[in-house]
Amino acid sequence: MFDIDLWREIFQSINMNRTRSLLSGFTVAFAILLFTILFGIANGLQNTFAEAFVDDANNSITIRSGRTTKAHKGLQAGRQIQFKNEDFNYVKEDFEDKIEFITARIYKNFQASYKGEQNVYDIRAVHPDHQYLEKTIIKEGRYLNQNDLNNKTKFVVIGRLVEEDLFLKTTALGKYINLGGIQFKVIGVFTDDGGDNEERKIYMPVSTAQYLYGNNDYIDQINLTYNPEMDADRALAFSTLLTKKLKNRFSVARSDQRAIRVRNMAEGTKAISQMTVGLTFIILIIGLGTLIAGIVGVSNIMIFIVKERTKEIGIRKALGASPKSIVSIILIESIFITAIAGYIGLLLGVGVLELVGPSLKDYFIKDPGVSNSLVIGATLTLIIAGAIAGYLPAKKASKIKPIIALRND
Amino acid sequence: MLKIHQLHKSYPIGDSSLHVLKGIDLNVEEGEMVAIMGSSGSGKSTLLNIIGMLDEADSGEYILDELPIKNLTEKKAAVYRNKFLGFIFQSFNLINYKNALENVALPLYYQGLKRKERQEKAMYHLGKVGLADWAKHLPKELSGGQKQRVAIARALAANPKLLLADEPTGALDTKTSYDIMAFIQQLNDEGKTILMVTHEEDIANMCKRIVRLKDGVIMEDVKVTQVRAEQYV
Predict the structure, then answer these.
(1) What is the secondary structure of A365-402 as a DSSP string?
(2) What is the pLDDT of residues A210-236, one digit of tens each?
(3) Rounded Cα distance, B90 and B169, in Å
(4) What pTM was computed for the model?
(5) What is the Cα–Cα distance from B143 to A377, expressed in whole angstroms?
(6) Of A5, A9, A319, which is closest to B82 when you measure between CB atoms?
(7) Does B171 touch chain A (CB under 8 A)?
(8) Which of A323, A351, A379, B29 could make an S-S bridge to A398, C-beta 3.0–4.6 Å?
(9) How far apart are CA A210 and CA A172, in angstroms?
(10) Angle at the Cα of A391 from the Cα atoms of A389 and A396, rounded to 5 degrees
(11) Mapped to the 3 state alphabet, what secondary structure does A247-265 carry?
């Protein structure tokens, strides 16, 4: 199969016609370079958007309380609204079919220590559903479950960086950690894509926190995700209804913006998803545009090369070259140049992205990059296009009567 | 070794067609050296191209070494050209990016010979035309006469039965022309059959037979006493 003489012919032809080879290679390399850079930047833009919303589920609703700002139903302004377990249960049961996951949150802040190491961390007392709401990824052990909640166990799940800080190189799983003077068993270690800050958190059952710190049934906040089958409009209607009902329940004026605050991510999600669609569209146009420009360039060069070599083809035919050998020598040469040049363009493009990528963060471009398969696919497309573009004239040239080719001066 | 009977060829020109060869009959025996003469448009180049399988006749018979040449596929024509025929052109037609040795070795490549064998054979033929020292030079570094000698070496490399020359001295000055002709005569002395198209009387007289074409028919076909080229060199 491997014909060393054919390759020798091809290398000689490439080597002795350097301008021609460099020009055609340059076109391809440049097309792939542009493709890589433009696509990389577009991907970087998309990464920025994705990152802004990666931390939490994007169908989430948070409910917080504050002081009333308006007197209502004979109650004074400035009254503190405090959620309790019964409020959590009310929301959970009343809107069961509209809710996907729901959790309460109690915020604490304790000095945590293990052996000699200590540090201050945010503690969140939560329900098991919190794992899905926060997109917490369990690395080792397990997350909190209903059993922990029922038994008010002194279990905690700690972030990867908490383990790193306190347990240094050893594993935290199964060991006891001191939180504000009370020993908790570490039953799980988690990671979170939301950044370092999110990995410096400690989770414990909400019931345990209520029992240990004040023996009450207070909760600070309710987080939930709405049923993802609801579209943005229905989700917004849902949160409006939820707000209204909660305001009634706590006798808060309807126009009071502070006492009960419901924040629905659907408001932002709607705009973001439109933006993402727009971006994807732009990326597609950029990619297709560069590719088409490359294909046209390669095709032109192939036609030119065949034209330039017509006389050589005539000589070769007069000396006994078969049409097949004529076509293959031209095609293999062009495919070889395109492949090498495409690879160089890819390396250059990736190199440029690596080099300038980090400094583009200020311009909302994060981690610009392209998947290898995409660029290889683009290069293959160019090679195939070049091959087709070269095949037709090469085939035609191989059929020219040698006498006509020889007359072509 | 070459038999041609009632050969016709016409080229389309716009709507009409130009009848170039109007029934050519020609027999060439082995070892002959034939000059085909005629003014431009007489059909002499067309005849040579058909004999060289570079072009195809419309009708008529062409038998080369007892092999009828008809309805050849491109592939078969390529094999025949490679095996039976050696070409020498007016404009040399060397491949400009290959050196002298590689140019001479090219027909051997298409014969499927091994690289080493090709180089040895090519070197031998280059030596025969007196250009062994120029083997690594590109055509642009050679003089016209040297280029034509490389082309002759290339034509000989595949050891063809028939050598076809289309105005082999057309691009050369008189002295170089005689030089080349002396060499071609020497090849003929060694037994090669040679067919050459020329419009120069002195060159034609250096062959052993002159066939004169006019308007697509043979006007005259005479054996002549060969004028040796050496005496002018």
Answers:
(1) --S----HHHHHHHHHHHHHHHHHHHHHHHHHHHHS-H
(2) 888 888 889 999 988 888 788 777 888
(3) 6
(4) 0.63
(5) 50
(6) A319
(7) no
(8) A323
(9) 25
(10) 110
(11) HHHCCCCCCCCCCEEEEEC
Whole-number Å distance between alpha carbons of B53 and B2:
13
User: Do the bridges between strand B16-28 and strand B67-68 make them parallel or antiparallel, or are there none, so unpaired?
Assistant: unpaired
Q: Which residues pair with A226 in a beta bridge?
A: A99
Which residues have CB under 8 Å from A281's CB, separation 6+? none
Could you tell me the two tokens for A179? 């939180």
Q: Cβ–Cβ of B54/A12 closer than 8 Å?
A: no
Measured between its terminal Cα atoms, the distance across chain A in Å is 35
Residues 6+ apart with CB under 8 A from A311: A405, A406, A408, A409, B93
Per residue in A260-272, is it b (16+ CB within 10 Å) or e — as a string? Answer: bbbebbbeebeeb
**pLDDT reading at B230 higher than 90:** no
State how far the Cα of B93 lies from the Cα of B165, in Å rounded to an integer.
12
A127 in contact with chain B, both atoms CB, cutoff 8 A: no
> What is the pLDDT, as a whole number, of residue A4?
76
Q: How far does A385 lie from chain B, in Å, by closest CA?
A: 27
Q: How many CB atoms lie within 10 A of CB A136?
A: 23
Q: Give me the count of residues in chain B.
A: 233
pLDDT in tens, B77-121: 888 888 888 988 888 889 888 899 999 999 998 888 888 999 999
Report the distance separating Cα A275 and Cα B38, nearest Å: 80
ipTM: 0.87
Q: Considering only CA atoms, which of A203, A184, A183 is closest in space to residue A192? A: A203
Q: How many CA atoms lie within 13 A of A305 on its CB side?
A: 35
For the four alpha carbons of A13, A16, A17 and A22, in that order, the dihedral sign comes to positive
Q: Is the pLDDT of residue A54 over 70?
A: no
Q: Is B54 on the interface with A (CB under 8 A)?
A: yes
CA distance to partner chain A, nearest, from residue B110 (Å)? 6
Q: Is the Cβ–Cβ distance between B95 and B103 less than 8 Å?
A: yes
pLDDT digits (tens, 9 = 90+) for A117-167: 888 889 999 999 888 888 888 888 899 888 888 888 899 999 988 888 888
The answer for A33, left when phi > 0, alpha when psi is -120 to 50, beta otherwise, is alpha
Phi, psi (rounded to 5 degrees) for B29? -90, 165
- Show the tokens assigned to A75: 């109650």
